Amino acid sequence: MISLISTITDKVKDSIKTDNVDEIKNIKEQYAGFNSIMLTVPNLTGDSIDDIFTMRKLNMLEISFLQYSIIYGAKKCFDYLINITESDNINLGRHSLHLATSRMEIYYIDQLLKKWGDNDIWLNIRDVKKGYTGLANMLVHEDAEYIDPFFNEGERTLKEIQDLKIKITEIFVSYPGLNVLLEDALGTVIFDVLENTPSDNTIKNILTTHKSMGEYQNIGLGLDGRRGDEDDEDEHDEPIRRSFHGISSLSWRENLRERLSNTTLRIYESVE
Question: What pTM value is reported for the model?
Fold first, then answer.
């Protein structure tokens, strides 16, 4: 039985790498337990044969065939596998969305959100190691990091990366169950890691439109990081402005959390 599963997994992995969806379908028809198979992630720091499929890159111990198709950019296999997958594999607090945002591939992110984005727990789950949600997993990395060859993505320009981050953020914010104020393992929120640049400030503006911002929803920032009405600001606004400029403000976050709607607060407590 073990040798059979090993043979099947090897065939599926090879088929995914070449995006041979017809072979995947044939294997699925021949083996009833296809959907239950998980791939053990090698704990290697440098495998010349398969450097992408390592614990160091994925921060997961096991992944599904669907997740394997994401990291290798096998779009045809991905489309087939997501349609036959009932629930996403979660391992060490990471799932398919974390892998898709690591690739920063908008197609996979969009399809995954359409499949499971209405599940608030899935949408906001944070990885065990760093406490990143799927969205935070993308935004915490500097734009320049995505220019380097990573998950087979090395040809995009810095401007393309910045535009893509903005578009992906817009997709995330369209889901009501998203919580933009969840803290990571260091106690910081997304606004603390975003920089005071035109592209990051555009992302901040997008994030502030979400209902999980509570009373600070739609506060509005200029591309220089200043609020549109900053000339008329009062003492109440100062904690907001400090945090948006990248200065950690625990009291500001606590104040925001207290003012979250009951629905968003329940989501926060569930994920915590």
Answer: 0.80
